[in-house]
Write a sequence for this structure.
């Protein structure tokens, strides 16, 4: 393995672009170059909702709020409860991000499903609360904490960003339970994001899965070689 710092590779794209499948596949590909850790840096609202439901006294109410509304991005009339939901999301994301940094420091190659950004406020994987002051002091407090956390996280830029670009019709066909307008917004914002990555790879995610995975493998192999890494299979460098 190279003596250089291990890379952080982020995979982004709308729902229906195949992120989960690509990430699952890439863990195996990258493991040939060294110890690889998969991290999810998105909200994971469903998991947070289930965890929040176990909180004493307010758990059921908070969990229901998360599961049913998932906190509307840039909603202007946030309540104390919705601010608490955002806070729970934020705590989880920061903990996951710190864990990612710890793993990288230990020499792990990092594969990140999603990545925080400030490039398009309100877009997926960005800030949830609007910057406009609220009449609710608690909302203002959470808003400040959220901005501070994102400013800190976005200082750490991925070494490689793999963008899975999918068309609206294909995404809707793959995710029939998702709202078309919500998918459209994510698809439209994806080309605008680069997360400050040192290298960007654009993939046509409308292609058959086998072609997408083959293309990703080839380009990631090229990237790892550029970074000075060599495959290690069964203890032998190849």
């Amino acid at each position: 393995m190279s003596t250089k710092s291990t890379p952080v590779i982020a995979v982004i794209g709308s729902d229906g672009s195949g992120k989960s499948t690509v990430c699952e596949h890439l863990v195996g590909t990258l493991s040939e170059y060294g110890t690889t850790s998969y991290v999810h840096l998105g909200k994971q609202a469903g998991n947070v909702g289930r965890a929040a439901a176990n909180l004493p006294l307010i758990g059921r109410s908070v969990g229901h709020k998360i599961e049913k509304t998932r906190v509307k991005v840039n909603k202007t009339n946030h309540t104390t409860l919705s601010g608490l939901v955002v806070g729970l999301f934020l705590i989880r994301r920061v903990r996951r991000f710190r864990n990612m940094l710890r793993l990288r420091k230990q020499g792990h190659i990092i594969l990140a499903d999603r990545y925080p950004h400030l490039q398009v406020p309100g877009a997926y994987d960005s800030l949830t609360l609007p910057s406009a002051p609220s009449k609710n002091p608690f909302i203002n407090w959470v808003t400040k904490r959220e901005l501070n956390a994102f400013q800190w996280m976005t200082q750490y830029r991925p070494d490689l960003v793999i963008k899975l670009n999918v068309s609206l019709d294909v995404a809707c066909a793959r995710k029939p339970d998702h709202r078309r307008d919500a998918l459209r917004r994510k698809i439209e914002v994806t080309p605008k994001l680069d997360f400050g990555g040192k290298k960007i790879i654009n993939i046509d995610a409308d292609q058959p899965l086998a072609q997408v995975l083959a293309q990703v493998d080839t380009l990631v192999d090229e990237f790892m070689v550029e970074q000075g890494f060599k495959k290690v299979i069964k203890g032998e460098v190849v």
